[in-house]
Each structure stands twice: as structure tokens, then as C-alpha cells.
Design a protein that fits this description.
Immunoglobulin-like; four-stranded antiparallel β-sheet; about 40% strand; five-stranded mixed β-sheet; mainly beta; single chain
Length: about 130
């Protein structure tokens, strides 16, 4: 009987401490749900000139965006983790001012990025090198 009471108390304590923490969206013992995210930034060459026509891709969930005339992009979707890997690929060749090498940026979201049940990170800028 004493063992059952201790087991029940330990279970309640575990659930009580796992709930109500807004800094992390997952609960103890439960896999994290799909977590919404939004990433914004600008793609430039090494001189700081914006590059249009660069594909920004999160291959983990096949979400893709393309930079506009000012080099800016916005990518949003859902992930299982707090990490997003973005791939920046020149898809139009020399039409955007040259041929640029692919670049990969890993983003790890933190508690300060978490608001309104999703992660948001701005200023994820990428400076691309020209292909040689």
C-alpha cells in the first residue's frame, strides 16, 4: 500500500512540474507536437547587394520560398523540433547577377523566439559567394 501511494505521489509530481512552462512547448514524457515557425531574412552577395531568385528551402518538410527583388524572403511551416536547416540555392543561374554557391544555415530556436504558440526569427540573412 505504501509503495502504491509513493508511486502515485511521484506520478502526480512529475505531471505537475511538466505543465505550465511557456518557455518550451513540449511536456515531459510526451513527444513534441508540430511547432509552427516563421523565418525572415535577406540574401545578398559579399558586397551587400541583394540577390533575387534564390530558393530558400527547408528540406525537412519541403517548404520553399524564393527571394524577391530586394533579396528578402519569408519561410513558414511546422517542425517536430526546435531546429530548422535552411538551404539557399541559386536556381536561375547568371540571371540574378552571377552564379552563386549554395549555402546552408542551421537555426536553433530558443525560448526567446517562442511567442503565440510558434517560433519566429527575423534577420536570418545569408551572404552568398559566387561560384568559381
Amino acid at each position: 500500500m505504501k509503495e502504491k501511494l509513493l508511486l502515485m505521489a511521484a506520478s502526480l509530481l512529475g505531471f505537475a512540474t511538466a505543465c505550465g512552462n511557456k518557455d518550451t512547448p513540449e511536456m515531459y514524457g510526451v513527444p513534441p507536437p508540430h511547432i509552427g515557425y516563421k523565418v525572415k531574412g535577406k540574401v545578398t552577395d559579399k558586397a551587400g547587394n541583394p540577390i533575387p531568385g534564390i530558393e530558400v528551402n527547408n528540406k525537412a518538410n519541403a517548404i520553399t520560398s524564393t527571394t524577391g527583388g530586394d533579396g528578402s524572403y519569408e519561410l513558414s511551416g511546422e517542425e517536430w523540433s526546435h531546429n530548422v536547416t535552411l538551404t539557399f540555392t541559386d536556381i536561375d543561374g547568371p540571371e540574378n547577377g552571377g552564379e552563386f554557391a549554395t549555402k546552408i544555415i542551421d537555426i536553433e530556436f530558443t525560448g526567446s523566439d517562442y511567442t503565440d504558440d510558434s517560433f519566429t526569427r527575423t534577420g536570418v540573412d545569408a551572404a552568398l559567394d559566387k561560384k568559381e
